[in-house]
Design brief:
CATH topology: Rossmann fold
Function: Catalyzes the formation of N(7)-methylguanine at position 46 (m7G46) in tRNA.
GO molecular function: tRNA (guanine(46)-N7)-methyltransferase activity
Strand content: 15-25%
Strand order of the largest sheet: 3-2-1-4-5-7-6
Number of helices: 10
Binding site for S-adenosyl-L-methionine: 67, 92, 119, 141
Pathway: tRNA modification; N(7)-methylguanine-tRNA biosynthesis
Radius of gyration: 17 Å
CATH class: Alpha Beta
Distance between the termini: 35 Å
Enzyme class: transferase
Structural class: alpha/beta
């Protein structure tokens, strides 16, 4: 992955962003979707913050969820179709992932997804307090080298940011097949007074929660013998 060069004038949320902007060249239709469909679905975080995140969607929207780093978009698209009265915000700085979710939105005529092609920390800062029912972080980049751990999304400051936008009783859900990052996430959430881990028995984190849509990366990890943990944390 590429990273931004250090800039002392940037705040912590800006320095926390290390996403890949672009990978392989987009196919013609993918490029057309990015040029013509994405502008209709993209959130403008430079506009005024809504008083209620449901305002981003239609009047029938009952609650709003966020998926950070949705990759190929399989989980996000499936959830949006299963829960049509929920508004879904997908955050993904990687343009190839954005092109993939746009293709799924077009093919299935999904109307309850909005997208943000940028830094999730900036999006969290823009969203209104207590406006989300759930945040999903599924198979994030683990940044395995110690010197890169500061690049992991789960940090004390991002946990606080998630706590601000999640309503009481809302959930942060984390899926990862890297043991070290799972331990890292558990330790960071354990020292937060805003969250409680919901597992009561081993299968609560060894098995996917009911209705979980396995991603392509998740299937690959399983084939290669890596077992994922499925962690759920409730906002108190």
């Amino acid at each position: 992955m590429s990273e931004r060069k250090s800039d002392p004038d940037r705040d912590d949320s800006e320095r926390a962003f290390f996403g890949r902007r672009k990978g392989h060249k987009l196919r013609q239709h993918q490029a057309e979707l990015v040029d013509h469909l994405l502008p209709h679905l993209a959130l403008d975080i430079h506009s005024e913050t809504p008083t209620d995140a449901r305002e981003i969607f239609g009047p029938a929207t009952e609650d709003v969820r966020l998926e950070i780093g949705f990759g190929g978009g399989e989980h996000l698209a499936a959830e949006a179709q299963k829960f049509p009265t929920t508004g879904f915000i997908g955050c993904e700085p990687y343009v190839n992932g954005m092109a993939k979710i746009l293709a799924q939105i077009e093919a299935a005529n999904i109307g309850n997804i909005r997208l943000f092609a940028g830094d999730a920390a900036e999006l969290l800062a823009w969203l209104p307090k207590g406006s989300l029912s759930r945040i999903d972080l599924i198979h994030p980049d683990p940044w395995p080298k110690r010197r890169h751990w500061k690049r992991r999304f789960v940090q004390d400051r991002t946990i606080a940011a998630m706590a601000r936008v999640l309503r009481s009783g809302g959930e942060f859900r984390f899926v990862c097949d890297i043991d070290d990052y799972c331990a890292w996430t558990l330790s960071h959430l354990a020292r937060s007074q805003d969250f409680v881990w919901l597992a009561e028995r081993a299968d609560d984190f060894r098995q996917p929660w009911p209705g979980y849509t396995m991603t392509r990366y998740g299937r690959k990890a399983a084939r290669e013998g890596r077992k994922a943990a499925y962690l759920r944390f409730k906002r108190v």
